[in-house]
Write a structure and sequence with these properties.
two-stranded antiparallel sheet
Length: 132
């Protein structure tokens, strides 16, 4: 459906399938200035690129068409893997970890549950106590 983008004064048309010529690529490169469509925030950056591209050309091109073309220019999978994690300590240790004392309590509860489950499964057998 057609509509008017009042903020930019550009008429939005239905989704376009671009024909990539030199002028279109220059618009894409200009739209990518300051944006990096790789790494942790790649999808956010792609939304910004898509909006800027629309502002420059008036063409409503889907992000999948932009991804497809960008992937012909660069190997984004390699660039993605080369990016540092935004929070390396979180990525290395997981999103959340309990303090040592609380982790020990949880471990003891799980151990006692394992013993109870073992006793329920084998009523004649006495469960072995875990050594600390």
């Amino acid at each position: 459906s057609s509509g008017i983008n009042a903020e930019y004064g550009v008429t939005m048309t239905e989704e376009c399938v671009p024909v990539w010529d030199a002028e279109m690529e220059v618009c894409l490169f200009q739209s990518m200035l300051g944006q990096k469509p790789v790494g942790f925030n790649k999808h956010f950056h792609m939304m910004c690129i898509q909006q800027r591209f629309f502002e420059r050309t008036g063409m409503n091109i889907s992000s999948s068409h932009l991804w497809e073309h960008i992937n012909t220019l660069w190997d984004t999978a390699i660039l993605d893997s080369a990016q540092d994690a935004p929070f390396p300590e979180v990525m290395e240790h997981g999103l959340f970890s309990l303090p040592f004392e609380q982790a020990q309590i949880i471990e003891e509860i799980q151990s006692s549950e394992d013993s109870s489950n073992e006793l329920a499964a084998n009523p004649g057998k006495i469960p072995k106590r875990k050594q600390k």
